[in-house]
Write a structure and sequence with these properties.
The chain is an alpha/beta fold. The protein is built from five helices and nine strands, in the order αβββαβαβαββββα.
Amino acid sequence: MTAESVRRVALWVLSTAVLLGVVFTAQYHRVSREPDLTELGYFALEEPGPRGTGPLSMEGSWTVVFFGFTSCPDVCPTTLSVLNLALGDLENPPTVLMVSVDPKRDVPELVEGYVSAFNPSFRGISVTEEETRSLANRYGIAYEKVFDETGDNYLIEHSGVLVVLDPAGLHTGYIRPPLHPEQIRDLAILLMGAS
């Protein structure tokens, strides 16, 4: 192969990589700006486990939504622990809801049991992959499966951002890591007093 041929192949590979990167980024970070949850019936999903069946609705209270999964080794247990420290002893705390980004392994009862181990008032849901992706895209929450070298096992890289919804279900803002219990508690007290 001549130097010119090597240069052309390298240029082609680089151009292809850049193009794929642009396409992936556009798809991965596409966000709907529509703030309400009417497509999912404002979490009007069947409620799993010991709390009974029926619609799971957050309407009427401030809600902190977190996207995670039960076999997460670090972000999820840390986030749920911080939320428990921040909100655990408030008289009227916002609703904490974890949406599983691993519906294949996280059946609804597992998610509900996982989050309630951190605080019995915390809620957890697992819906279809399509519903999860739609909801995550709506709020700009990124997640992706990362397989091990065998291709059999995976973890999920995901955002640690908390999504804040007002009592009408409108997206009000984000709480971004690093998460500090005192700041989350102060924000919750402020929001609960304002509603």
